[in-house]
C-alpha cells in the first residue's frame, strides 16, 4: 500500500498550493487587471508582483468604493523628506478582495527578517499567503541582498522565513512560501532546499533556471525530482516553474515530475487564456483576450501606461494591430482602435475619471485615424469569427462520431488526458527554444485568420499535442 504523503498543516485562512496552476509574480506584467484576466481564464492562484518591504511599510490602507479595491498608498518621496501636501498619493499595491482576495499571494522583496515581518503585517489580513522572492537576478534586487542574492546567504533567507512563520502565521493564519532558482549543482540545491523546508514554510516554488541563465534559455528540469523528494519528505508543497506553457502542459509536467503544481509567467503574459484547459476551449484568439483585458483594466481604473504595456505583450508584434495601438494615449483611443464600439462610452468615462483628456486636439487627431483603422480591423475580425464558428460546428460534428469521445462520456479531451503517457514515454520532441510557445496558435491565427483549434488542417488532438510539445 502506498504510504500517505506527509503534509504540513495549512493555516485556517491560508491556501494549499497543491493541485494548482498559478500565475507567477511579475513586476509590471502582474498588476491587478492581469491577475483578474488570469483568474477569468482559470488560474487557480495569482501572485502579485514583488513588492519591496520598505515600500509597503508606512503605507495607508483604504478601500476604493469606485474600483472596489483595497489600496495601499503613500506620498511619493520626490527626493525631499516632506513632500508638499497637494502631491497625490501613489498606489503602492492593491488587491480586489471580491475577485481575487481568496486567491492572492503577496510576494515580498526583502533581505531583513524584521522589515519582512513589518511589511507582511501591512497586507496579511487581505491575502492568502506571503511568498519570499529568492530568485530575482536583477541588480536592483540583488545589490541590496534581496532576490537571488538570498540563495547565497541561506542563513539570512532561513531567518526571514522563520520570522514570517513565527509572527505572521499565528497572527493571520496564513502560510509562508518561498520562490527560488536552482543552483549550479544538484548538491548545492539539495543543501539549500533541505534547510528551507525546515523553516515551517508550507510551499516552495522552484524556477528551474540558475541565476545567470537568461529567460530565453530552456529551463533545466534535471534537479526537479530531487527537490520534490525533499519537499515531500518535509510535507511541503512543491511547485515547478520555467517554460510551463499552459494548463494542459502543466498537467503533463506535474504527472511526469510528481510535483504538486505549476507556475506560469511568460506564456501568461503573452496570452492569459493559457490557463484554460483544452477541454474547455484552450488558448483563445488574442483578440478575445485583449478585449477582455481592456474591460478589466477599465473596471479597476488601471494606470493607462501599464495597460498599454500589457497590450504590447498580448498583441502579437507581427499583427498590424500592434502598430496601430502605439499612438493611443487613452482608453477611448484603444477601444476605437480595437473596434470595440460597445466599450466607447465606458472608455470615455474612465479616461475622465483617471485624468486623461481624450478631447485634447492632439488626442482627437490620433483617435480619428486610429478609429478608422480600428473599424477596418473589427470588420475583419467579425468575418474571422464567423469562419471560426462555422469550422467549430463542423469539428463538433466530427467529435460526436469519435469512439473515444463516447468512451469518455462525450469528453475526448478528458479521455486523452486520462490516458496520456508522460512525454518521455511518448518520445515527444521538445519545442525549439526559438519557437515562442503561445506564438504557435497566435502566429497561425495571424497568417490563416483562423484559430488553430478550429483550423481544418489540425485535429483537436494534434492541436493539444502541439501545445504540450
Ligand atoms: C515581466 C516579468 C516580471 C517578473 N517579475 C518577477 C517578480 O516580481 N518576482 C519573481 O519572483 N519573479 C519574477 N519574474 C520571474 C517569473 O516569475 C518566472 O519565475 C520566470 O519568468 C520563469 O517562468 P516562465 O518560464 O514561465 O517565464 C518575472 C518575469 C517576468 C517575465
TrEMBL record:
Keyword Oxidoreductase: yes
Ranges of biased composition (kind: Low complexity): 365-376, 387-398
Cofactor: FMN
Domain DUS-like FMN-binding: 89-288
Keyword field: Flavoprotein, FMN, mRNA processing, Oxidoreductase, tRNA processing
Cited SUPFAM superfamilies: FMN-linked oxidoreductases
Database matches in CDD domains: DUS_like_FMN (cd02801)
Sequence segments annotated as region (Disordered): 365-469
GO MF entries: flavin adenine dinucleotide binding; tRNA dihydrouridine synthase activity
Task performed by this protein: Catalyzes the synthesis of dihydrouridine, a modified base found in the D-loop of most tRNAs. Specifically modifies U47 in cytoplasmic tRNAs. Catalyzes the synthesis of dihydrouridine in some mRNAs, thereby affecting their translation.
Protein name as it appears in the record: DUS-like FMN-binding domain-containing protein
